[in-house]
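Handoff note, outgoing to incoming analyst
You'll be picking up this chain. Sequence as last confirmed:
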Amino acid sequence: MLKELIAANDEKVSKEHCKGMEGLVAEATKHVLEEGPDKGPLLDVMIIAQYQRMTHYGIAGFGTAAAYAEALGLKADTKKLKDATKDIYGGDEYMTKLAESTVNLQAEDA
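Most recent structure output, in case you need it:
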């Protein structure tokens, strides 16, 4: 989506690898798949925690891009970016509810 917005504003789109997200994925892989339990409630807690770390990174990036688009007066782009940020927040909030209502309680009892 970001590439489409950049191209739509007649700017050069370059391929850029996100080392920040790469680091988050590497940490999640290490902590969850390599060092975490094979299964069970604690694994679920760890998966949610790593997912939320990644969503918070996405919220920061898309939120910043939305604020920048708004400052530039790009109303359509601002809406798309704010909608994307809202969707990411929704996933994060869902994971929080899931953790607090079920997963954390199951891990506590394990």
